[in-house]
Amino acid sequence: MCGSVECSWGWGHCAPSPLLLWTLLLFAAPFGLLGEKTRQVSLEVIPNWLGPLQNLLHIRAVGTNSTLHYVWSSLGPLAVVMVATNTPHSTLSVNWSLLLSPEPDGGLMVLPKDSIQFSSALVFTRGSCC
Description:
- By secondary structure, this protein is α+β, with helices and mostly antiparallel strands.
- The chain has helices at 18-28, 31-34, 96-99, and strands at 40-47, 55-62, 67-73, 79-85, 91-94, 108-111, 116-123.
- The strands form two sheets. Strands 1-2-3-4-7 form a five-stranded antiparallel beta sheet, with helices on one face. A two-stranded antiparallel sheet has the order 5-6.
- It is found in: Lysosome membrane.
- It comes from Pan paniscus (Pygmy chimpanzee).
């Protein structure tokens, strides 16, 4: 139940929870990329040295023939991007000047671009009714 708070997401009184949406996002990834038994996981905080205190958290899970990249951002609303590649050698590239500009295209890239098999993003809005 939502109580007395109205949600304006077009879902009526209750919207799906962020956990449900994140679970659906994970299961939408190609099973061949998620099916590896072991992955080497690393965490990296990528600070913005150019200005205000803003960071990205990059979680990289490397398998024998693929990599999963999760990038959590606190720029604006909380958001997460997931990118699956078909190589254990893919990397994340961040250009803070572009990322913080009015046209941020190219500010956040996984390289090599042709290794990307799947990508998705989820933005957590500030208001939650459920």
